[in-house]
């Protein structure tokens, strides 16, 4: 849970923020109605993830509460009823994350959504590619204030090295003019690599060339920013691009997952499995199903059958988390692996032992499973699946609760 400090003298505003923050499962909040109360909380051992602070309080009418939270290094969002351009600029320069006016109810949602975005940012790595030390330091400071994990590179060549070493980088911001490899060439190179197809790439330049933004986009960038940029523009572009990418990932994930068991579905098994098949000459394919599953549905009902499938899938992912695991259909599951085949078969034996020793569903069922395995590389993945399936059929007709292996 993340503690949020709210410093606000208006009871109505505190009530609205309390309701919105209370609806966020990752947040809990501390409400303060004045500077003194906020100071008392900040001087304890309580750790605050962020603060929402009003500028004008009865005992701090000139923004002193904002100075207080910044002194305690708490990321601060100003929520105020008055918009003052010079004050806004001054506070942003001091390190405030954002300056939001209470001009409508949407403002309160904006504040809470911003805090949730900061929470998500904790797990996101960003690469800044910039040869100017000054510019790089400024961009990095903004990103760290937004709670990102920040990495740096001085040109495109170094950026590729960093991307290959840190495969979980989700966002890259690259300047155009750099030695060895410029920003556009860097973006082109990354987009040619399947590993970086989903990375958010944003171009950056102080050049007056109006066509440069189009060059970046055509090279594969998601967006382009011209230096110098406004604080809010930087935040909005970064957040909007990340949220769009996350939404696409959620849609894609939903399309690839089996809704009941929350493992991959048959379509994704074939799509990703084909890629794995061509990546290795030692692909292993296993097909399995739960023995006597129809009896569970017929005697205990489909609810019990669904619970059994869910729990069985959970054990599968526990033992084969580094492989491609999916529901093939009904009570039948498939595993596609490029790991060492001997190790895979040892893991399969351990998996079957755990299944035998577990009880499933609220009815404490004892179940077993039958498995067919194909370790011989064939002309296509489809043929390997068919071979594993035929061996599964043999296992079922050999007494069940056993493995039939095609070496």
TrEMBL record:
<keyword id="KW-0548">Nucleotidyltransferase</keyword>
<dbReference type="Pfam" id="PF00990">
    <property type="entry name" value="GGDEF"/>
</dbReference>
<dbReference type="InterPro" id="IPR029787">
    <property type="entry name" value="Nucleotide_cyclase"/>
</dbReference>
<dbReference type="InterPro" id="IPR050469">
    <property type="entry name" value="Diguanylate_Cyclase"/>
</dbReference>
<feature type="domain" description="GGDEF">
    <location>
        <begin position="281"/>
        <end position="407"/>
    </location>
</feature>
<feature type="modified residue" description="4-aspartylphosphate">
    <location>
        <position position="54"/>
    </location>
</feature>
<feature type="domain" description="Response regulatory">
    <location>
        <begin position="125"/>
        <end position="242"/>
    </location>
</feature>
<keyword id="KW-0597">Phosphoprotein</keyword>
<feature type="domain" description="Response regulatory">
    <location>
        <begin position="3"/>
        <end position="117"/>
    </location>
</feature>
<dbReference type="InterPro" id="IPR000160">
    <property type="entry name" value="GGDEF_dom"/>
</dbReference>
<protein>
    <recommendedName>
        <fullName>diguanylate cyclase</fullName>
        <ecNumber>2.7.7.65</ecNumber>
    </recommendedName>
</protein>
<dbReference type="Pfam" id="PF00072">
    <property type="entry name" value="Response_reg"/>
</dbReference>
<keyword id="KW-0808">Transferase</keyword>
<dbReference type="InterPro" id="IPR001789">
    <property type="entry name" value="Sig_transdc_resp-reg_receiver"/>
</dbReference>
<dbReference type="InterPro" id="IPR043128">
    <property type="entry name" value="Rev_trsase/Diguanyl_cyclase"/>
</dbReference>
<feature type="modified residue" description="4-aspartylphosphate">
    <location>
        <position position="175"/>
    </location>
</feature>
<dbReference type="GO" id="GO:0052621">
    <property type="term" value="F:diguanylate cyclase activity"/>
</dbReference>
<dbReference type="InterPro" id="IPR011006">
    <property type="entry name" value="CheY-like_superfamily"/>
</dbReference>
């Amino acid at each position: 849970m993340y503690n949020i400090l709210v410093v606000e003298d208006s009871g109505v505003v505190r009530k609205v923020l309390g309701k919105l923050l209370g609806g966020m499962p990752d947040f809990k909040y501390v409400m303060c109605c004045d500077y003194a109360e906020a100071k008392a909380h900040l001087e304890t051992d309580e750790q605050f993830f962020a603060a929402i602070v009003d500028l004008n309080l009865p005992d701090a009418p000139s923004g002193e509460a904002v100075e207080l939270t910044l002194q305690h290094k708490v990321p601060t969002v100003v929520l105020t009823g008055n918009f003052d351009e010079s004050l806004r600029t001054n506070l942003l320069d001091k390190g405030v994350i954002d300056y939001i006016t209470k001009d409508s109810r949407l403002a309160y949602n904006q504040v809470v959504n911003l805090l949730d975005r900061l929470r998500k940012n904790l797990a996101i790595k960003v690469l800044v590619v910039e040869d100017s030390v000054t510019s790089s330091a400024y961009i990095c400071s903004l990103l760290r204030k937004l709670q990102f994990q920040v990495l740096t590179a001085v040109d495109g060549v170094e950026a590729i090295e960093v991307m290959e070493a840190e495969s979980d980088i989700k966002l890259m911001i690259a300047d155009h003019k750099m030695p060895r490899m410029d920003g556009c060439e860097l973006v082109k190179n990354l987009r040619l690599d399947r590993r970086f197809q989903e990375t958010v790439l944003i171009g950056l330049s102080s050049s007056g060339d109006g066509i440069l933004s189009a060059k970046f986009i055509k090279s594969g960038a998601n967006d382009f920013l011209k230096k110098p940029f406004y604080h809010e523009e930087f935040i909005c572009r970064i957040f909007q691009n990340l949220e769009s990418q996350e939404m696409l990932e959620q849609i894609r994930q939903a399309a690839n997952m089996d809704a009941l068991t929350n493992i991959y579905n048959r379509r994704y098994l074939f799509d990703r499995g084909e890629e794995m098949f061509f990546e290795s000459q030692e692909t292993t394919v296993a097909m399995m199903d739960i023995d006597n599953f129809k009896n569970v549905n017929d005697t205990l009902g489909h609810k019990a059958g669904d619970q059994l499938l869910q729990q069985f899938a959970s054990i599968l992912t526990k033992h084969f988390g580094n492989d491609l695991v999916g529901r093939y259909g009904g009570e039948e599951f498939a595993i596609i692996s490029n790991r060492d085949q001997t190790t895979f078969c040892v893991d399969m034996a351990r998996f079957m032992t755990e299944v035998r020793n577990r009880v499933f569903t609220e009815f404490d069922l004892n179940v077993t499973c039958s498995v067919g395995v194909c370790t011989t590389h064939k002309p296509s993945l489809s043929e390997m699946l068919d071979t594993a399936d035929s061996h599964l059929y043999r296992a079922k007709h050999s007494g069940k609760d056993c493995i039939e292996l095609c070496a």
